[in-house]
Amino acid sequence: MKALVYHGPGESAWETVPDPDVKEAGDAVVRVDTTTICGTDLHILKGDVPEVRPGTVLGHEAVGEVVETASGVVSVRPGDRVLVSCISGCGRCRFCREGAYGQCRGGGGWVLGHHINGTQAEYVRVPNADVSLHPLPAAVPGADAVLLSDIFPTAYEVGVLNGRVRPGDTVAIVGAGPIGLAAIAAARLYSPGRIIVTDLAPARLDAAKRLGADVTVNAGEDPARLVDDLTDGLGADVVMEAVGVPETFELCTRMVRPGGHVANIGVHGRPATLHLEDLWIRNLTITTGLVDTFSTPMLLEMLAAGRLPASSLVTHSFPLHDMERAYEVFAHPAETDALKVVLTSENLPQPPLPIT
User: Fold this and answer.
1) Which residue in 183, 166, 190 sits closest to 291, CA to CA?
2) Residue 166 needs a FRET pair 20 to 30 A away by CA distance; which of 157, 195, 268, 284 works?
């Protein structure tokens, strides 16, 4: 089969690799019909995730069809159309029993495209299939459903739930990439009083407005001062970091009110300074997190009911064999205005691009 293989920082290639087989009793093999590229994949290519070994197939998001199951799989069977979750919980360890699948100690957690071969391929082996695969209604387009592999559960769990968004809150989101935009949609489920979004890219700020941001501000125009002005100097109740660099994390700590919440969603490859000499007295709660995906079944129901604007985040579509070109487009959003790119198997029709 063909797959996108990581060969070290800055190096990857769409090349031929062996087809996957089931290895453990809980495995399934899925033919990938739809996949996408995540900001985390770009962090891997930059060398920010050194535990990813050269030779690993990248990717942790997909929709496809089950083609083979091992003896221990009971919830899906060959022929089923499924969503592949970015998290593969064993379902048995202490953390999985608590719904914290991202911290699985039974061989799961974030393994696809991280510790084992991932989904940016024609086929993928999915461990712990009973927990990691979600059957999909035929009416749900793959290009929409694939956004529930990662970004919508991440925005909802690591951003909105960790940030404890409540009705009437002022919510500030730093970064209007796919995760930040999904966080806008997820935060709106809790009726905040105001959502403020900052980013450097005008196209992403426009997308933020379309998804429901009340106020947008270019990151070069002192967003912390704007938040102060809009809250009479108090600060935002909840601030979400959706970029993953030290400067944006420190900006978040300047934008939050005393007693407020900073929810870090971004993947960081460098240390960020925690100014405890200023923050200790402000009663802040700062959370980090890897998504657990316990919310995926609920979010799938909302998607099927038309309550999640998933298709609004897709700006580019490619056939699966154009993976390298898709990476170029996704990695240069300032030039391409890319948000989410979707790649579809050649045996399926290409999804239409949204009308904007």
Assistant:
1) 183
2) 268
Domains along the chain with CATH numbers: 2-150+293-344 (3.90.180.10), 156-287 (3.40.50.720)
Main-chain dihedrals φ then ψ at residue 57, nearest 5 degrees: -75, 130
Distance CA 52, CA 324 (A): 19
C-alpha to C-alpha distance for 150 and 86, rounded to whole angstroms: 6
Cα separation, 88 vs 127, in Å, equals 6
Q: pLDDT, tens digit, for every residue of 190-232?
A: 999 999 999 999 999 999 999 999 999 999 999 999 999 999 9
Is the pLDDT confidence value at 252 over 90?
yes
CA distance 223 to 317: 33
Closest Cα partner for 122 from 2, 245, 270?
Answer: 2
Instruction: Give dist(CA 224, CA 226) in Å, integer.
Output: 5
Structure tokens at 344: 């579809």
Which residue from 177, 104, 133, 122 is spatially nearest to 341, judged by alpha carbons? 177
What angle do helix axes 202-211 and 178-188 make, rounded to 10 degrees?
20
- CB-CB contact of 122 with 2 (8 Å): yes
d(CA 26, CA 12): 30
**pLDDT band at residue 356 using 50, 70 and 90 as cut-offs:** very low
* pLDDT tier, 350 (very low <50, low <70, confident <90, very high otherwise): low
Query: How far apart are alpha carbons 78 and 30 in whole angstroms?
Result: 9
pLDDT of residue 355: 41
Radius of gyration of the CA atoms of the chain, in A:
20
- Going by their DSSP bridges, the two strands 123-126 and 81-84 should be labelled as unpaired
Whole-number Å distance between alpha carbons of 343 and 137: 20
Name the strand (E) or helix (H) holding 272: none
